[in-house]
Structure formats: C-alpha cells, structure tokens
Amino acid sequence: MLNIVLFGPPGAGKGTQSQKLIARYNLVHLSTGDLLRSQIAQGTELGLRAKKLMDEGLLVPDEVVIGMIESQLANNTSAAGFIFDGFPRTVPQAESLDALTQRYNTGVTCMVALEVNEEELVTRLLERGKTSGRPDDQDETKIRKRVTVYNTETAQVAGYYATQGKFHALNGIGAIEDIFGQICAIIDRHQGAATSVTDSQEATDEVKA
Ligand code: ADP
Questions:
Q1: For residues 73 and 158, what is the distance between their CA atoms, to the nearest angstrom?
Q2: Where are the annotated segments for NMP (predicted)?
Q3: Looking at the predicted structure, is the pLDDT value of residue 189 above 50?
Q4: Which residue in 119, 127, 193, 205 has a CA-CA distance of 20 to 30 Å to 42?
C-alpha cells in the first residue's frame, strides 16, 4: 500500500496536490478538514462542536479526528492506498496513524511537506476565502492564528517522521506541475525502495536475457 502524508501549513497547496496525486496513484483522499466540514454541513453534534474551534483557527481534539480516520480506513479496506491531507497534525495523531495502519499490515510510506512563507499563505488564503465560503479563510487574524498553531503544535510532526527517515520538504512556491513532479519523484523513490528486491531481480533477468 502507498500511504502518503501531505504536510504543510494552511494554504500550502495540499488540497491541489492531493487531487493530482489521487489520480496518478489511484489513492483515496482523506482530508480531516473536509471530513469535519461535511459533519458541519450535516449539522451533527460533532460538527457543531468542531465548528466553534475551526472558526477560531484552533485544532479540534485528537480523539475526534483519530476516530474519523479510523472509520475511513475501515470503510476503504480495498483501497490501493491513501493520501492523508491535514492529518496528522499532532504527535499523538501521528502515533495513532501508525497504530491504525498496522492493523491493516501497512504503514506510512513517507511524508512530503510543502513549505510556504507566512505572507504568501495569508495572500493565498484571503484569495481562496473570496470563493470558498470558509469563515476561517476570510479573516486575516484567523488565518495568522492557524499559521501560528501550525508552527507551534503541528510542525513537530515533521520530526516524528524525520526520525523514521520518512520526512521530505519541498518549496511550495512555484508552478503546480513542477511541485507535483517533485512530489512524485519522492514517492517513486520510496516505492522503489519498497520493491527494490523485485527490481534487482528484474535487472538480473534483463542482463541474462
Ligand atoms: P487548512 O489546512 O487550510 O487549515 P483544513 O481543511 O485542513 O484547512 O482544516 C481546517 C480546520 O479543521 C483546522 O484549522 C482545524 O480546526 C480542523 N482540523 C482539520 N484537521 C485537523 C486535525 N488533524 N486535527 C485537529 N484539527 C483539525
């Protein structure tokens, strides 16, 4: 299975790149932000509680998002793999993701982080807010709050994957296609490493032939 964690601050381009990656690698897209917004749209109890925090730019509790991911994994057992977008955002969430994927005899393949400076993020999100209808994209104070939460609470997740040799950072400013190409190159390297026994056997076979 190919399980990619797409990482980066709000507005870094995770959603855009996720759409391209699911098409290329036939993956299921799991965005905790989208899952939470769907709960809000349905008017559920969970959605009502999450909305208050989301509108303030704060994180919703770990157990809420972990529970959502757990049921999404259970509902998609025949998937070729997943893109995790906006999750994990804390170290306990990252630990839970390892435990949950282990249940299916798989794990996180790699994490790719898109790096974008705060001023560019604010510009992008205010622009997105004109059409997204998201209250958290329409107010500069809330946007800066989300960036601060990312820097103080979420950025440590990078270290969690770095110690596992799975962390990669890319410049998230540039042409969408260029960034996509760089992400694919990282994923293909990890996939290549996972299948290198088969590859070297094929190479030997080619030499023989
Ligand atoms: P963005 O990356 O633009 O901030 P998201 O759609 O990923 O947008 O998330 C929107 C909001 O949903 C976050 O600010 C946070 O309140 C909540 N949220 C999403 N994913 C998580 C998560 N993994 N843990 C806690 N809160 C989350």
A1: 22
A2: 31-60
A3: yes
A4: 127
**What's the token pair of residue 93?**
């969430």
- Kindly report the protein residue whose alpha carbon is nearest to atom 23 of ligand 1: 87
142 lines ligand 1 (CB under 6 A): no
pLDDT in tens, 75-124: 999 999 999 999 999 999 999 999 999 999 999 999 999 999 999 999 99
Could you tell me if the CB of 89 is within 6 A of ligand 1? yes
Assigned CATH topology for domain 2-178: Rossmann fold (3.40.50)
Which residues, at least 6 apart from 84, have a Cβ–Cβ distance to it below 8 Å? 3, 4, 5, 6, 30, 69, 97, 108
65 lines ligand 1 (CB under 6 A): yes
How far is the C-alpha of 104 from the C-alpha of 98, rounded, in Å?
A: 10
Q: Whose CA is nearest to atom 6 of ligand 1?
A: 33
